[in-house]
Amino acid sequence: GATLGVMGGGQLGRMFVHAAQRMGYFTAVLDPDASSPAGRVSHHHVQADYLDEAGLAKLASQADAITTEFENVPAQALARLAAQRFVAPAAAAVAIAQDRALEKEHFTRCGVPCAPNAVVNDEQDLARIGDDLLPGILKTARLGYDGKGQVRVRTREELRAAWDGLKRAPCVLEKMLPLAFECSVVVARGRDGAIVHLPVQHNLHRDGILAVTEVYAGNVAPDQAQRAIEATKAIAAGLQYVGVLCVEFFGLEDGSLVVNEMAPRPHNSGHWSIEGADVSQFELQVRTLAGLPLTQPRQHSPSIMLNLLGDLWFARGAEAVTPDWAAVLALPGTHLHLYGKTEARKGRKMGHLTLTGPSVEAVRAAARQACALLGLPGF
Ligand code: ATP
Ligand code: MG
Ligand code: MG
């Protein structure tokens, strides 16, 4: 049988491996960690750094086609693999998604508006920043995630201190926008240019980390939802993208929609699709990698996803205590995912809970009860 390879062994890789194995593929995972969530469940596990030549050669020898689950996989590593195997998404697209400045240029090229922003690479750039971008958020151009690598600034003094604090790395300063809501769209694009999408996902973040995703009719006003889907398709097509791509948006109080960022892979906000749709974002990733047809996924149940962060393990004190899953699983339509991470840490994504139900009211009620049982804030 064919073997599908993935760069990165986190939870996204693990769910990719599950989807691939269900469809009869063997899997190979490259990750530096010997006990990574995906490596532990894969047929092959190459324990190597992402740029290690011997590791890359081994992955290329084991896998017929290779994708990535790790946003910051070095683009050179993908380019190296592409000399031998089919790689999707391509190194060039991943390189753009990894850099906030390049990403924003691409959005603008595609005619999709971003928050007002300016690149800060050096002292001159910093001096040129206009007061119109304040208050703002200074974000490192590369390697940020879950709100890490960003600082909120109100004044020029705070901006300078924040840039120093970020070690004067290349950054983008974004104007702080009055968000009415946040949403995201997952698309999959095949080698032939065919493109399908999941329904718009309404996202609630806490402390810069995704907390709750709600997916059902009316979660986002239809007009804004349609604009988000069209924008995501244009962004994917503009990259000649092959694979699964997620684009995050801000809905503003005046009814407008601006793009935030994109991820060149399945996304936390798309996890609900495993149980809530007939084709999940991970099956879409398998299909694009294996060159299989893409059909438009159909959502069959209103769905809500609750992220399970390591903080939950510390609700009762400094010792990690496993939450009472049995109580939650007694609620109808709950689907528990734990990623097999050995150590719980505050702010670490340990798993998620998807609730599906026969109606929006039913799924919202069950999700509220799950929050109460787990001691999570409501939504
Ligand atoms: P992710 O884990 O999604 O990759 P990240 O670290 O790349 O996160 P962003 O998505 O840029 O960070 O920002 C995290 C959150 O901070 C956003 O989802 C939003 O809630 C808030 N935020 C970011 N930029 C702005 C902005 N310009 N105006 C208002 N809020 C913002
Ligand atoms: Mg990000
Ligand atoms: Mg984000």
TrEMBL record:
Q: Subunit composition?
A: Homodimer.
Protein task: Catalyzes the ATP-dependent conversion of 5-aminoimidazole ribonucleotide (AIR) and HCO(3)- to N5-carboxyaminoimidazole ribonucleotide (N5-CAIR).
Under the cellular component aspect of Gene Ontology, which terms does the record hold?
Answer: cytosol
| Keywords on record | ATP-binding, Ligase, Nucleotide-binding, Purine biosynthesis
Annotated residues for binding of ATP = 100, 139, 144-150, 174-177, 182, 205, 260-261
GO BP terms: namely: 'de novo' IMP biosynthetic process
NCBIfam families per record: PRK06019.1-2, PRK06019.1-3, PRK06019.1-5, purK
Please report the stretch or stretches of sequence annotated as the ATP-grasp domain.
104-290
The first-level EC class reads ligase
EC number, UniProt record: 6.3.4.18
Q: Name the lineage.
A: Bacteria, Pseudomonadati, Pseudomonadota, Betaproteobacteria, Burkholderiales
Keyword Nuclease recorded = no
Tell me the pathway: Purine metabolism; IMP biosynthesis via de novo pathway; 5-amino-1-(5-phospho-D-ribosyl)imidazole-4-carboxylate from 5-amino-1-(5-phospho-D-ribosyl)imidazole (N5-CAIR route): step 1/2
Q: Which GO terms describe its molecular function?
A: 5-(carboxyamino)imidazole ribonucleotide synthase activity; ATP binding; metal ion binding; phosphoribosylaminoimidazole carboxylase activity
Question: What protein name is recorded for this chain?
Answer: N5-carboxyaminoimidazole ribonucleotide synthase
**Family stated for the protein in its record:** Belongs to the PurK/PurT family.
Q: The organism sits in which domain of life?
A: Bacteria
Record field: catalytic activity: 5-amino-1-(5-phospho-beta-D-ribosyl)imidazole + hydrogencarbonate + ATP = 5-carboxyamino-1-(5-phospho-D-ribosyl)imidazole + ADP + phosphate + 2 H(+)
